[in-house]
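Two proteins, back to back. First:
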Amino acid sequence: MILLEVEAVSKHFGPEPVLDGVSVTVRAGERIALAGPNGSGKTTLLRILAGEEEPDGGSCRLHASVHLGFLQQQPDFPPRRTLWDEAAGALADLVWLQEEALEVAEAVGEASDDAERDRLAARYDHLQLELQRRDAYNVDHRIKRVLHGLGFEEAAFAQPAASLSGGEQNRLMLAKLLLAEPNLMLLDEPSNHLDIEATEWLEDFLLESSAAMVVVSHDRCFLDKVTNRTLELFRGTVDDYAGNFSAYWRQKAERLLVQRRTYEKRQTEIAKAKEFIRRNAYGQKHAQAEDRRKKLARLEPVEPPREIDAPAMRFPQPARSGDIVLRAEHLAKAYGRPLFAGVDLEITRGQRWALLGPNGCGKTTLLRCLLGLTAPDTGRVHFGAGVEVGYFDQQLAELDDGVQAVEGVRPARKDFNEQQRRDLLARFGLTGDTALQEVGRLSGGERCRAGLARLAAAEANFLVLDEPTNHLDLWARDALERALLAFEGTALFVSHDRYFVNRVADHLLVVEANRVRVVEGNYQTYRHLIHRRPDAAEPGRSEARVATAERKSDATRTPAPRRTKRRFPYRKVADLEAEIFEREASVEELHRRLADGETHRDGDRVRQIKAEIAQQKEMLETLYAHWEEATELNW
């Protein structure tokens, strides 16, 4: 069933069109990712689909049965309305149904005419069925479930909505949309202002929903889990891809390869034809030249490759530091309530650490304590020999809003001429007039790139980054990941981008309730370990060398009896984990191939893939058992 049909929509905000003949059809059950670089018109298209903005040309047609919900980014709450009032307002129609049912029930009891009584009884039965279908008798539970899932504490329910922070207000708008249960959702950056736990809750909620949706997001893990179709908006037009973000990324690379070859071949043909015409226009081969000119005029044009340029980000290779880059001992900090305590940490040269934790847990405070920008309540931090720190502050306080970007990236006490600075900005995607704009007039993504360029200019060997992917589009994030992977120094960063953490980090510092945990591996390692081992908090497990305070409290426990006999030969835990992740990735790839429509045309191929999946899963079960034994006996 077609819920929404968009035909030849165009929109201008200047001489060049933002949307230039966009046509899209949205069907029931489709979960569509709308991807494109910053400034490509994604939010404009969503606003047109929602009816909040008129297109200059074309049409949008909604099916009569569609209940559309649009996640707005600029909420406006009336005074004195509490957080709970606003959330409950999304279910106002259910309250009206309940009130009507009560009124009809009273009317049935008062009716004296049999026919009228029968009519009212039938209406009451209909209302009861509708209330049961929509789970109207669990309204409070539904509201609490959504508010808790999006990170609201019960103590905040009575707080005026207008007094919430900007991020909290956006989360409340998302809660209202989810509670309203539209059958078509338009979601513009729904995971903004959510920590990892709340984002994963939202993913599961959306997967349970039967609603169709169009999603704009820079969270690649979110898109991978939630979406099943991808629309790429670029140069004012849309390209359609089957599958989630990862499927789109692969298909995009394949299409680009074909487009480049086709375009280059056509350009070569044109160049040869023009050269032949030029040399023979007035010679003996004049007739052949004229014939080629006519053929050239009839030649169908081939569009240039639909290539989205990613900035060539790069951090200069640094001077060598000592083997120990940073050592923290017994760090603790509290602001009214304890944020963290007993944190012990050692970072060695070449490692890449990610600092994770829920909103409000003190990640930035811990980062600033490690850098000496905030004094801890207790504990000490030592830097190693030759360590030069470069700090990317998520507020970009180092950038002066009143100067041009080309001046803003100038490092202190360094000879750095204008051409060098312009070349540096170009590496981070800021070229032409953009480099001459005042920093305060740049977009969020452009300011972020300028901040990263300034960080690169510092030529530090220890990069510390607080939320560096904020405001970066998918292509800039990919470029930043590649730049950090190529960097031969040391890195420590805070990020909610699981894809970024997975790709870049080799160690995690995870701030959890009442402890800080160290994990040797990336986010996939962490998720795997906490899912596989519900008792992973116990000391002695290889996945986490837990903070000192936790180890001390655990030291008083009676140790569980240890197994002394091995079922499997000795292997390092890290080697087992690497093989587990490799085989899990193989299973995921096999499932993707099995879901491909082309595969199902070949019965033998389907059977072969299913057999391979069964074989890999059998090996995984053995590896899981081996891993559990190794984590217990390898200490």
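And the second protein:
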Amino acid sequence: MDIRNICIIAHVDHGKTTLVDHLLKQSGTFSEREQVDDRVMDSMDLERERGITIQAKNAAIRYKDCRINIIDTPGHADFGGEVERILGMVDGAVLLVDAAEGPLPQTRFVLQKALEKGHKVILCINKVDRPEVSDGIRTKEVVNHAFDLFIDLGATEDQADFPIVYACARQGWCTKDPSEIPALISGEKQGSLEPLFELVVEHVAPPQVEEGKPFQMMVTNLGWSDFVGRLAIGRILSGSVESGQKLIRQGITEGGTPKNQNFTVSQLFHYQGLKQTEVPQLLAGDVAVIAGSEDFQIGDTITSDESMAPLQRLEVNKPTLAMIFSVNTSPFSGKDGEAIQSRKLRERLLREVRLNVAVRFEETDQPDQFRVLGRGELQFAILIEQMRREGLEFMVGRPIVLTKEENGMKMEPLERATLDLPEEFSGDVTRMFQERKGLLVSYETSGTHSGSGGTQNRVRLEFDIPTRGLLGMRTKYLTATKGEGLFSSQMTGYVEWKGDLLHRPNGAMISDRPGKVTEYALLNLDDRGVLFLQPGAEVYEGMIIGEFNKENDLNVNPCREKKLTNVRAAGSDHYEALKGVRQMSLEKCIEWLEEDEWIEVTPKNIRLRKKVLAGNQRSLIRRS
């Protein structure tokens, strides 16, 4: 069968998963009576809750006589490792770009990787039904920006001559002719995604197969079956494989030394729609799912000939942040979930490293603490949330930026932050980023957009800013722009260390005793800062209950009760109410945290605490 292997790549929230939904529906993958959820490719609970793609996932559709294997990739830069490892499975890509927002940092990052692999790219301008692009001028600008991006990234002449299709993924139609867009939006003309199918078949090359070579495949993804266990997913580079055949897994040990393992293929699958369908044989060029070993790891080479050298293991961009994971040592340990020991915490983190090549694991001097290296705060937040939902209790520290030495100079990672925001907030945002060592490199208007307050002039700012400067910035930026701003960043390299940065100007209010929080005590503390806890919450000594409005820390008594008397006085008990309690989500806690503090994570609660609990053993004066 004629085969095409493609991936859908784009910035977060530009409509990749919605487009794949309609590709699956229009190819006849689902029966007419079958109930299909929206964003059917987002199978994880966290993906559905957050509305983002976290893990790359496979699907296959049949168009006429051609079988098209599609891989939906994440759009957020923190999950770039997922994108990097699956680009070797495909021969082409559909680059999805928002018709109003244009190419954004993650678009640049993924496109660069695809062009380096020599892939042919189809440009799909999505959301052409947005009111701010109805005149077509912005759409032409976005196409020009995309072309400039191809040239800037060193695309070949053939790659820069990319086909263009204009789409509304939400309604399931596209067209090669921009003059048809008004008729398709109004419904005068019925459209479909057939032009995109045609472009994929016409412009994406069939897989290159090495004739006469034994079976060889690189494991680029892992799956799980309740019936046959762990599954290795990857593209067959040469040869063929049959069920029951004896193969060799060329992997590595924990120490990094090569290790071969013989196993027998228990079952073979390929994709039909989203389902894995068992088949007796698979040929080179197809995406295969192999069962037979519980030791498959991403980056392993599977072959039928032991004399063949293993393929080079997958390499992804190095991590930029590190976070300490620790056993839970708080007084409330074991109350909400499973208080795990260091052995189990270590095993869980190692399992994550095997499944995600963008994450690394290191031991520390403390036997109950481990160092996890990753790409960004969101990646850590997703890992923490997954472990929390597994019923585990543990603690995490503040993210630390990874530096390196070059020619005796201390170097730190630099990011290019792209901000799209209403023009009225640009002054405050510029000042905020410059305070964090950011350098404004671009300021351009991006037209008039419709927002919550009506039409507004929007601008696009680009800053070169150290990764340290972005820690804790997302929430402040959204507050400064009243939720109207878009924020994204991409690492560009390393620069000389830019000096000290003040992470958090305010100190913490810390409970000085265990007990239950009373409303009377919180009313007396309300003017001292911002509270994090509601009345009735359980606290312990050293637990953080709020943010102090001065730069030092403050020990307080949140459990104080009102003394009762038998004397009545008119007006003495007048009604008072708390000003408000700040709800601290996991991401907000990670952004707010200082180096001498822990986040205590349990299945039911997220608490902030000092590393040293006893008040007489820690200083209240904070270092800048």
